[in-house]
Write a structure and sequence with these properties.
Three copies of one chain form a homotrimer. With about 400 residues, chain A is an alpha/beta fold. Chain A has 15 helices and eleven strands. The relative contact order of chain A is 0.16. At the A-C interface, helix 2, helix 3 and helix 14 of A face helix 4 and helix 15 of C. Chains A, B, C: This is Knotted carbamoyltransferase YgeW.
């Protein structure tokens, strides 16, 4: 049986009905079947595209993107996913928009959605804000749909919030699944999600949180390592703990990077800002206290600088399983001697893992496309089968 | 007979030939048949989309958008309309463009139009400029087409100028037609287009002008209300007066908001800047007199503040027909206690009309798409029939 | 035989295999057959579009654009070309992107290319940089493709670099070919590529270099005229000399505009900055020496002002062949009394040639589309034949 048929058969066995006409906020709000369906559809879409079979399921329609933070990878991934399915991206550039002072989210959300099939939002800067904003948008368009204002219910994809970065972590996981030859091979494997030093300030917590919130689902031995004071949101740590217990895995927190790297099968060393500091910053922004923000930034950079030894060096890598753990990063990484004097990772380590890192990134467009497809179609397996049967060329082929 | 067939039959009885290969500048330059055709095609396109039938009539082609003022609603409406018909929007961002100092409009217009099927322009800031600029663009591409420079004649849609806001007012009217169960039910109905207080400065005149220029066509009792000094362009008031006389309606101007609201079937309370002040501002900008502009702004805000009692309060609403007039607004509204301390409308009034207001806005993408379709096809009824017959899914359907 | 069939037959006789999966950097890196193929495919695509036959060869896919300099003409030409073939343009706006300080070109290039079929880059500001950057991008995606990171190899189109402006010059040449009734009629014809005075500063050298690097291929008598000190890159002058010798043409450099215009069949008067000054500027930018940049700008404007007599006046035009040389320009031109007090060309000369100038520009979208088509298809003649046979309407036609 072809790989594609296998994927479709697998999908048929998964319960995905609740994803239909629904949003994707946090991975831990989804069932195992639903996460599995995302990976399966992502692989199936990739298989079709590789065989030059068009996966356009929309003949018109908009994918609205709203980025409240600069982005290249996620922006292009969302644009690629929409294009792959036939949606045209329309960016809500808040700078160019006439969004009145005090205009409600409810109003803006409806005004941009008359012909929107999907909305992708990145809003990761402020603790307690991003995810809440996404929910407000989703509730608004749900109400608009029910009240007959919108002809279709645009569904939402969380392109990174203050809590989770589901499209990134689902792509990370799909990469790991491929590298280890299947999800079943991950049971018991050790992954070290570790803080690492960076000379820059205020990196979001959504990646480490997303990683511990997802990989504890897979029966893995998940270790979160960071210096004292770099704790993640306690609610997410709680989720990780609970899931590990339920799935026969482990979740440990340590302040020792070496302990985390010891015999690890996978390492994910990455900088982030302390949760408490991010909360403080959110409040300072709300108060418009620019002096306070500057002072905080200085303080945080000084705090970071106390932990320059938290780096993914060649020496650290030797501690891992056979010295060959799979190195993960969401990119761009702070590479020592390349993008900064001292950073998250040695240049030689990064170089050795360049190809796998880029492949890791290559799953993101497919993961997003899979989320959209599962949100918009009640019977995704049938859609995939019919796309194959339709056999429309993606690129015109000379016969 | 289905609603769609009714619409197509109605369209067949309307004379639309002069719209073909022509532009849409002002509603009062169009015949009754032509306005009717826009509403009819808008309804028909909506009907097709609701039945998941694709209305893509372009297999490639560009819709050029040029916004000289911030915009969310109109920008998304134009993008939606183009997408619905199969055109890709290409934004002429004057900031990112190499438009030489002194470069003629004629040159720019031709340079962006080699593969443009439609051009949408919003240029509403300066009295005597916006509409004139649109004509210059249209004349330029007409000349380019005749001289063999352009292979097709891109047609223009006025997305708001200094004189009219036809896509907004045509959407407003289509909403009203639906609410009152048909255009024939509007005869004799009273609509109050009233100034209302806003703490912001320099709102365009195009909406009140567009409303009196359009609704006087429908045999309605149109009352324009504003404080002294807030007159609209005299030419447009003249048009309204003449049309009312011809169509068996009325057009009155009053300085008493209560008089306007008294027994009104529809109210449209909205802030705008005095015509004379807008003219003065245009000249100050032309002279680059920034001190003068600041002084004028201060003066206008003070003048506005004298009229804080011009607000659509619950008390005012009680004066209308059975206390239940249909409340219209182009959005965003200045809502008292929500978007500002004192504004155009009470929060409780706005909330009560939220759904109808959003529905009002939902007609705009279809109105724009209808204008484009009528500009590009000689036999629009046949196009609609053939689109239905083609029956191409908008969203892939699992069979 | 129809024009289209002639073009396809001609294309069949040209060797284009090396263009497949390859990039387009400089015209002089391409064979005569390859340049000929670009013009032939451009004409054929235009012929199909004029007959309302869709030339969409991609059912999904992205065309990435990266403009490091403001642009209207080239930006719209690239967007038009992509749209014509079915690619959606995704702009890499470096301002809105999260491109880390020190992030490698290799990484960015791969991250934006997961679903990119073509990349268009304009980077013309710094000597020794633009073309080198394009090669780095092309090498990066080539490596990404070979390493299995990218599923397809995005090919590159140079939309203007520091050395050449191939899409402009190929469009210029196609215009000339049409005006003279065929490439064979250009042998021995004299073209004057002349510097002309402009009050602006630092115009790129890529147009004059592109013109002498291309037109010397056509057996023409190419004269490069400029004041002393306005030399172009010596390597390109060398290329022009060598090609002229090989192709039975001539390449002369003169400091006398009149000598260049004397009996010229074609004139291309245009301002550019001296190569030595551009090199100096590049270094000053690299050093961040803003005082030095200001001083250099002042110096260059003063130097320009010494040569106000270098203008394409009516008097100068009288020197040309029968006083009727074809006037070329890449636009926008600095027109005396229109866009500036004293500039490159008299208003009356410009006006007389407006239509041909706009037609010259109209070839650019087709030239870019032809480059893309030749880069993506092994058998372009078959593709064209099958597009004609498919006969898909570009604009829906009422039957």
């Amino acid at each position: 049986m072809s790989n594609f048929k296998n994927l479709v058969e697998k999908l048929k066995g998964l319960k995905t009905q609740d994803m239909f006409m629904n949003d994707f906020f946090l991975t831990w709000e989804k069932t195992d079947d639903e996460l599995n369906a995302v990976w399966t559809v992502a692989d199936a879409l990739r298989d079709l595209r590789q065989r030059n079979i068009s996966t356009k399921v929309f003949d018109s329609g908009l994918g609205i993107s709203l980025f409240r933070d600069n982005s290249t990878r996620t922006r292009f991934s969302f644009a690629s996913a929409c294009n792959l399915l036939g949606l045209e991206v329309q960016d809500l550039d808040e700078g160019k928009s006439q969004i009145a002072h005090g205009e409600t989210v409810r109003e803006t959300a409806n005004m941009i959605s008359f012909m929107a099939d999907v909305i992708g939002i990145r809003d990761d800067m402020y603790i307690g804000k991003g995810n809440a904003y996404m929910h407000e948008v989703a509730d608004s368009v749900e109400a608009g749909y029910k009240d007959g204002v919108l002809e279709q219910r645009p569904t939402l994809v969380n392109l990174q919030c203050d809590i989770d970065h589901p499209t990134q972590c689902m792509a990370d996981a799909l990469h790991v699944i491929h590298e280890f030859g299947g999800i079943e091979n991950l049971k018991g494997k050790k992954i070290a999600m570790s803080w690492a030093y960076s000379p820059s300030y205020g990196k979001p917590l959504s990646v480490p949180q997303g990683v511990i919130g997802l990989f504890t689902r897979l029966g893995m031995d998940v270790v979160l390592a960071h210096p004292e004071g770099y704790e993640v949101m306690p609610e997410v740590a709680e989720v990780a703990k609970k899931q590990a217990a339920e799935c026969g895995g482990k979740f440990t927190v340590t302040n020792d990077m070496k302990e985390a790297f010891k015999d690890a099968d996978i390492v994910y060393p990455k900088s982030w800002a302390p949760f408490a500091a991010m909360e403080k910053r959110t409040n300072l922004y709300a108060e418009g206290d620019s002096e306070g923000i500057k002072a905080l930034e200085k303080e945080l950079l000084a705090q970071n600088a106390n932990h320059k030894d938290w780096a993914c060096t060649e020496e650290m890598m030797k501690l891992t399983k056979d010295g060959k753990a799979l190195y993960l990063h969401c990119l761009p990484a702070d590479i020592t001697g390349v993008s900064c004097k001292e950073g998250e990772v040695d240049a030689s380590v990064f170089d050795r893992y360049r190809d796998p890192l880029y492949k890791e990134a290559s799953f993101k467009p497919y993961v997003i496309a899979a989320m959209i497809l599962l949100e918009k179609f009640k019977d995704p397996a049938k859609v995939l089968e019919q796309l194959e049967a339709r056999g429309q060329d993606r690129i015109f082929s000379e016969k």
